[in-house]
User: Fold this.
Amino acid sequence: MGGLATMWRRLSTPRTEAGIVVSDALLPYAVGAAKRARRVAVRMRRRVERLHTAPAFGGGIPPRPALRPLHLSVLGGRTLNVAVLAPPSADLASARLELTRGGRTLRLPLELEPQGDGTLLLTATTALRFTDTPEQPGDTGPYGPGRPGPALSAGLWRITTVLTRTDGQELRTGVAAAALPAADGPVAPVSPDPACGAHFRLMRSVDGFAVLKVRAPAHQAELNTFALRWDRITVRGRIVAPQAPPAAYTAQAVRRGGGAVVQAPLEWDGDSFAFDLPLAGMVSGRRAHRWDIQLQQGRTGLKIGRRLTDLRRRDQVIRTSFRIIALEDGSLLRVHAYITSAGALAVSCVGIEGAPDGAEGRV
Assistant:
């Protein structure tokens, strides 16, 4: 009995090391917490790698040589930039970059740029376009600055370089995958095409080569501008990847938590729309409410928002002020139209004096 008491006192008595009080009884908990943190870090790293990794192409084919890229990116959501080092022993006359998917191959010429250290840099820059037509026989190029870019359909595109020597022989090589983009900073490493909403994303294949993943644009309502005036708020935007004619869409303000819906007349110019917020129907006396602004198409509600951008924290970058707005009947509203953290347009409003109770009858 005395031995057990002595052992318990030793375990429960803290000791001091380097000025820090350490208890041996807490040591197993600290070790367990460190192991759990390590397992979580490993799972997160593997998850990030899976997000940037594509299947290998050509199973069973002998390994291909790969050129190391000095720069490989898609900037602005649609501009492909390539800079790779040529093999030191190659006597090149020309080079080109090929994007291949299925039986379709798009060719982009590479510029030969000799460097001061004796190396040869192969570079190319072109704008990428999305097409929902998998086969376009007439789209053969050439591509490059000042010309329309290659039209890519959804899927994985293999990136290959073809090096032509002065004796006419061709050497086909892959392009090694670049390092994963950084995940911090105000700008996202991967952003959609601001024009059409498609995603062009560089990924790493399982065997270490760079591939280009193309994703079709989603059906959404993109916000262009919202103008804060003294008597109204005008919203302008466009439909991305429309699935119905313009007449099938209606503009709505939906109150959070209450289910009240106020509609507004729409004006169309092609796929672009504009409407004034129905502020008179959104105010409930002196009670403040928040409203989501959306387009309704059948049973689908499309929240209007700013999504086709590379800004990571849009609510912290796109800042707006409160505005006092006078309605036609002379009543005053305190209105705040803003962008949420998800990029959606939202409005909060409250009547100052004599505001109509338009929203109360719609609950």
Summary: The longest strand covers residues 104-114. The first helix runs from residue 2 to 12. Confidence is low (pLDDT under 50) at residues 358-363.
